[in-house]
Amino acid sequence: MSARPVVLVVVGAGPGGTVLTERLSANAAEFAGDRPVEIHVADPYPPGGGRVWRLDQPDLLWMNSQAADVTMFTDETVRIDGPIRPGPTLCEWGDVEPGRFPTRRLQNAYLSWCFRRVADTPPAPVTVHVHAARVLDVADGAGGAQLVRIEGRAEPIHADAVILAQGHLDVTPGPEHRRLADFAAAHGLTYVPPHYAADTDLGVLRPGEPVVMRGMGLGFIDDMVLLTEGRGGRFTARPDGRLTYHPSGREPILYTGSRRGVPYHSKITYELSGERPPGPRHFTPAVTEELYDRRGPLDLRTDLWPLMARELAWHHYHELFGAHPDRVALPWPEFEARLDAGPAELDALVEEAVPKREDRLDLDRLLDPLAGERFEDAEALQERIRAYVTADVERHADPAHSADLAVFYGLLTVFGVLVDAVNNGRLAARSQAEDVGAWLHGVFGYYASGPPPRRLRELEALSRAGIVRFLGPGITVAAEDGRFRAGGTATPATVDARALVEARLPSASVARTTDPLLRALYDRGEAAEEELTDADGTRYPLGKLAVRDGRLVTATGRTHPRRFALGSWAGRGFAVVGFTRPRTNALPFRLADALARAALKEATGPRA
């Protein structure tokens, strides 16, 4: 009599589901022995790319990662308990120039190939089954079996464990977005809530009319591209390397602003000139543990940011001194020793050691470049932001400023340490809810996850052509007098428009999700939103799916032993999964391997 197979269901076949499927396959034999293992992967979108990276989207939509920085496979740097199974990066697989920013359609081809490799050539004793449909519900069956109901399938799958890896999901509008949508409907206006550009009908935005775009991150760049080149406009190169935009006449006029008033920093397109510093030095897990033991729950801005800033300074000056010794006035050992001694004299030390202001790290200015600036009229603001964008693109293409790239690596380092602090409960609830999500994620995205430089050169050209108008920092939008009225803090000018676009992705909200599986689990109390509670009893909902040790948490606070979740919508910390940078001991692979092993251990154990 053959052994009963071990059955696992992965909900979601995008990059996260693909990595989890690969890690389940890689680890299966250790836990299942000779028992057959069946992995069922369910997603209504084609596997590999999933929804976000699917094939049917315009070639105008690009990745904001270079081809050399994209891999779906573990390598020798990844410290995990499971086996390493290497594979090609995007640039190796597609014979693409390492510095190229691929289209999302090309990324889809790579991700689809990766999934096929995982599904078609699994190690014994694994078989992978793909279901092109939604998972509608999961219920407990006899002996702890998980009865997984899939759209279009008469009988449920009897699974030993289920892993949710659905990535970003749709939500119904929150109170603010409902209010603006109701106002728009009442006055014949157009309101586009937070959205995915490839999924949204931007045809509702009329040619020649002003449109307020709230947000200047990657969502804004996607919308900008589709509303300009996507409507027939074109760019030509000038002798000075800048671009000129030739309108088609079908573009709206985009009035854009954000908290900072400038777009995300241009992606850096060179490599470090010196050696990357080894590990964290000033902001380490041991430091956060010691602080927590002395002070109790920590505040990110007050307790941790000074240490994080010092870590970033160490990365910056390590590269500056090592790669550009002609631009410093002290030997590195002396500078490093004085930096280690404490932050009190840092400004004086930097002034003594680094003669040129452009070589010094000024985090306040770097992260908020227009702070305190005021302009007499809107045109002066346009010139200021155009000059900023041009200078940013030029600097991030110039290896003479390689210390900027060192700061990027410094951010990766401090995020790794912060993950440890969050996962070990060292942050106060308020600080974790407000500072990590709303502030620090914004800092990281603004500095490290910006668009390809070409997109910012296009933005500058669109501004000169009058298609884009900058509102500047501190954007405010009022719904009054039958119009949307927007302005910023840098000028007294405002604009009235009949259209408002929230140029960003929807925030996670399990309570407002439209996903049928999460909706069913949440309504029955078998899934809950993650919520933090401070010492004074104040509650801070995070909107994400509550998990503990990777397992779903119910409304009563219990964990379900056979239901797991991983991804951008799961957990209180940084439960990311999917493609990542190669040879960086990447966190997504470490999290996926640990969760896969936990699910296999549960699935191969005796049913209750």
Automatic annotation (TrEMBL):
<dbReference type="Pfam" id="PF13454">
    <property type="entry name" value="NAD_binding_9"/>
</dbReference>
<dbReference type="InterPro" id="IPR036188">
    <property type="entry name" value="FAD/NAD-bd_sf"/>
</dbReference>
<dbReference type="InterPro" id="IPR038732">
    <property type="entry name" value="HpyO/CreE_NAD-binding"/>
</dbReference>
<dbReference type="InterPro" id="IPR052189">
    <property type="entry name" value="L-asp_N-monooxygenase_NS-form"/>
</dbReference>
<protein>
    <submittedName>
        <fullName>Adenylate cyclase</fullName>
    </submittedName>
</protein>
<feature type="domain" description="FAD-dependent urate hydroxylase HpyO/Asp monooxygenase CreE-like FAD/NAD(P)-binding">
    <location>
        <begin position="9"/>
        <end position="168"/>
    </location>
</feature>
